[in-house]
Design brief:
- The structure is a single chain.
- The chain has 16 helices and no strands.
- The chain is an all-alpha fold.
Amino acid sequence: MILTGLLVGLSLGFVMQRGRFCITGAFRDVWLTGSTRWLTAFAVVIATHAVGYLALTSLGVIDVAVEPLPLAAAVVGGLVFGIGIVLAGGCATGTYYRAGEGLVGSWFALGFFALTAAMMKFGPLAGFTTWAREQTVGATTVSNTLGLPDWALVGVLVAGTALAVRHHLRRDAARPAAASLPPRRRGVARVLTEMRWHPFATALVIAGIATVAWPLSIAAGRVGSLGITTPSAKSVEYLATGDLTLVDWSVLLVVGILLGSFLAARASGEFRVRVPDASTIHRAIGGGAAMGVGASLAGGCTVGHGMVATAQLSWEGWIATVMMFVGAGIAARVAVANRASQSAPVATDDTPATQVGERPAEGTDRPAPVLTPIS
């Protein structure tokens, strides 16, 4: 059954690469441009997954306990992780799928993310991590604290997200249609490899994958949905020890994300090995290390907390995610201040490649992605 982890990872990696879905860009856009389009897409993932999770628990398909809140660890870890994702140029899954596209800077970020996560979880810093996460305040879920049924809070979350979606869809409808290259493929092949995926459609698919991951993961002996930090740390420990017991559903999940993004990038003509300059690699290393430390302290990343624990209405998930947003904002503002003195453009996930010196990818109706971390 652990092979289902590989299938889920392949699907997730493919979808995130084709949809350009990275939470770093969502957070950064709010702070730098005031745009909430991608943040709304992130909310669609949370709200839709919350509905799926509520359905699974209500039907008795899964029964998952929410751990007490390690407040200080969630706050500090989330803040450090948020700073790290801006330095690295992508969140945990964003780093995985960009590594699969051939971005060398993401290779360094991913390696140091996994390495520091392993040090924090299983290595010389494991004792500190355990101690920090044992300092809890007792609170578990928002609904439990407020004395409200889960469905009531999920309903509020869905309603608020729906209003935000309607706002952005109306704005989209008012814009003139974007120019595109003549299609080279037809039917499903064009949808999968050429067409630009709408952020909200991508978010719905990701939420569906996260929901399906619950019963598949539990059937394989692992209680959880999507997760990146712990399996990344386990991968490093396996490479160091050769202990096959470490290779579980979650490890195959992250392997699948990497492979899925590679296949998507190859199919769409977006795979290209890109070597950044030395300063970008240095930032990627520092960002990856900060991500590993922060996610280990916080107990999750923008997937484990941002997409999964928030859907469970977990206090830890929401507080850590908010702090990730704050950390990303601090790092982004500092980066812009540094960039302003150099009079260079700041690249975001939606920045056309032609604005920063790259040519459009052949065979696509959109420019090649801009994936260099901002400085």
